[in-house]
Amino acid sequence: MTGMILKQTVVGEYDRRVLILTKERGKITAFARGARKPNNRLAAATNPFSFGTFKLYPGKDAYTISEAEILNYFEGLREDFVGAYYGLYFAEIADYYTRENNDESQMLKLLYQSVRALCAPALDNRLVRRIYEMKSIVINGEFPGVPTDRPLAESTVYAINYIQYSSIEKLYTFTVTKEVLAELTQVAEEYRNRFMRHNFKSLEILETLC
């Protein structure tokens, strides 16, 4: 299966349990036996954000990873403490919205492109966050469009429409002024509070860092 590691937890002395968002089966749980042993071939492959192909065999309640070919480890985030927490927050949103045995290819694509955007020096991570939040709501069929209860700058209206209707591949191809970012932030916050009824642990930490 092709997918990205959303999170990992320690199991026993040497194993890891990971949550993978896959193109083929949606969100799945898998075990990596011996992944915590020194020099184990699955050690790096089961870190959060690792994207690639995973060879798995099914068990009663979860899969077991036998092999992994990682195409992108996103090493840049491992050296960027704040950027890593943005990525963990994005992974939490993906976990919140996705289900097992469901077509989650759009959310996987959005997560991958958004983590890539976090590694792009030219993009403001605050803008990447707001785009990701709004597009996640769009993909899951709840986005209400541009707010009509207040005046917004023309550029803000354009940006919201662009986020709603553009392809995921073209999402992170623009920047905005501070004023527009402030308005996007307000709209994204309101929509997140309305449609994502969940307390994201990584967001609590992220907001103390930014």
What would your notes on this structure say?
The chain is an alpha+beta fold. The protein has helices at residues 75-78, 81-97, 105-118, 125-139, 154-165, 178-195, 201-209; strands at 2-11, 15-22, 26-32, 51-58, 63-72. It has a 5-stranded mixed β-barrel with strand order 1-2-3-5-4. The protein starts with a strand and ends with a helix.
The parts where pLDDT drops under 50 for at least 5 residues are none
Biggest β-sheet description: 5 strands, mixed, barrel
Kindly report the oligomeric state of this protein.
single chain
Q: Describe the strand arrangement of the main beta sheet, using strand numbers.
A: 1-2-3-5-4
What series of H and E elements makes up the topology?
A: EEEEEHHHHHHH
Q: Provide the CATH topology of the largest domain.
A: de novo design (two linked rop proteins)
Task: Report the top-level CATH class of the largest domain.
Answer: Mainly Alpha
Q: What number is the mean pLDDT?
A: 96
Count of beta strands: 5
Question: How far from one another are the termini?
Answer: 35 Å
Structural class: alpha+beta
Number of domains: 2
Estimate the helix proportion, in percent: 40-55%
Annotation field: number of helices: 7
**Shape from CA axes?**
elongated
* Gyration radius over CA: 18 Å
Beta fraction of the residues? 15-25%
CATH architecture of the largest domain: Up-down Bundle
